Amino acid sequence: MAIEIRNVEKTFGAFTALGGVSLDVRSGELLALLGPSGSGKTTLLRIIAGLDHADAGEVSFDGQDTRDRAARDRKVGFVFQHYALFRHMTVFDNVAFGLRVKKKAERPAEMDIRRRVDQLLTMVQLSHLATRYPSQLSGGQRQRVALARALAIEPKVLLLDEPFGALDAKVRKDLRKWLRHLHDDMHITSIFVTHDQEEALELADRVVVMNHGQIIQVGTPAEVYDHPADSFVFDFLGGVNRLNGVIEAGVARLDGKAVRVDGAVGADGPAVIYVRPHQVELGVAPAEGVPEGKWSARVSSLHAAGPVARLELDLAGRALEAQLSRDRLSDLALEVGSWCTVDFRHARVFPAKS
Ligand SMILES: Nc1ncnc2c1ncn2[C@@H]1O[C@H](COP(=O)(O)OP(=O)(O)OP(=O)(O)O)[C@@H](O)[C@H]1O
User: Fold this and answer.
1) Which residues form the ABC transporter domain (predicted)?
2) Given a cut of 90, is residue 20 above it in pLDDT?
3) Of ligand 1's atoms, which has the minimum distance to the CA of residue 33?
4) Residues of the chain with CATH 3.40.50.300
5) Distance 138 CA to ligand 1 centre (A)
6) How do residues 205-241 score in pLDDT, each as one tens digit?
7) What pLDDT is attached to residue 30?
8) CA dist., res. 344 & res. 297, Å (int)
9) Terminal CA-to-CA distance of the chain, rounded, Å?
10) Which of 46, 78, 136, 194 could form a disulfide with 132 if both were Cys (CB 3.0 to 4.6 A apart)?
């Protein structure tokens, strides 16, 4: 099921929660709505679900306007962070619920319901817990039950609002991988809301970055990470150094030296140079001076657990984070207090905010 969202607006009193949002969700894709708290992600999801109405604009499913279709007729499955399971029902009965409450004409026979629930519980790897109650499950298991329950009605669209928000980091990571596999098997058009950039980048086919009720950028994880549309997206996707520099005669400069930047440089004046830590290139400091076109920095801290080493450097009084492989670190023989040269493989520049 493809979803077309056209100029959707929503206000709450004087507050604009969505200011004219348009988006095409492709059939079978796993899409992340990513943005800070209050950016309008949940509001958009609720409008797609039919739980809320837009003040203006349209949402169509496969070209058909949904305005007159109630939530229950949209073939949408939901999983919400706080969408509690029915406490008095077993895991099995929770999953069966959506099928048992169907209108009589559409309701499958009890035997078919049982078969379907068994299949779903196998899929979410919870068959052995079918007779337990929600209070006897871990948080991760509960979310898997919630997902099985959402899938029971064979939705055409699956909507997930911070589905793993309340879980600890390890369980979150496991469930993420698991959801990705599940989606690859089932190919249900799925939209999930998150404010966790790592979750969006790792899990989604495409990421929609939102801020202040607007869509700022839509792209694959690599596109939004490597080519952020603006400084907000660059910042929000995390792991960025912001270095105060200047643009002079169309050239970005840091401490007087020219910085090669991707994309437009912009007008002359104060500017912020954005560099991801893995785009910082370190070199061995020469015995004297600093090589042409490079900067000099001193290692202030070093974390080298795992395959990647993270360094914090002091670049003329500014903190600069760098990331490099452990192998490269040992080639450079850097330690806390060492001097090194610094260059930037990729940098972007945006005007300094006044
Ligand atoms: N029913 C409502 N009445 C008034 N204001 C609302 C209502 N629902 C949402 N808002 C406001 O609209 C804005 C967008 O809310 P929304 O829940 O869509 O944000 P979000 O991006 O999902 O944030 P979060 O990550 O915190 O859930 C917020 O400022 C919120 O306070």
Assistant:
1) 3-237
2) yes
3) 21
4) 3-235
5) 29
6) 999 999 999 999 999 999 999 889 988 999 999 889 9
7) 96
8) 13
9) 45
10) 136
Q: What is the dihedral of CA 68, 27, 122, 127, to 10 degrees?
A: -40
pLDDT of residue 116: 93
User: 334: CA distance to ligand 1 center in Å?
Assistant: 47
Of all protein residues, the one whose alpha carbon is nearest to atom 9 of ligand 1 is 43
Which residues in the chain are classed under CATH 2.40.50.100?
Answer: 239-351
- The DSSP 8-state label assigned to residue 151 in this structure reads H
- Residues 6 or more apart whose CB falls under 8 angstroms from that of 321 comprise 239, 241, 277, 280, 310, 311, 312, 313
Protein residue with its CA nearest to atom 12 in ligand 1: 17
Q: What is the CATH number of domain 239-351?
A: 2.40.50.100
Contact 340, 332 (CB under 8 A): yes
Closest residue by CA, ligand 1 atom 6: 12
Q: What pLDDT is stored for residue 83 in this prediction?
A: 60
Spacing, Cα 101 to ligand 1 middle (Å): 31
Distance in Å, CA 40 to ligand 1 centroid: 6
Output the CA 17–ligand 1 centroid distance in Å. Answer: 7
Which CATH code for domain 3-235?
3.40.50.300
**CB-defined site of ligand 1, < 6 Å:** 12, 15, 17, 35, 37-43, 193, 195
pLDDT at 354: 59
Structure confidence by residue, pLDDT tens digits, 170-197 = 878 888 888 888 888 888 999 999 999 9
Q: CA 196 to CA 180: how far, in whole Å? A: 16
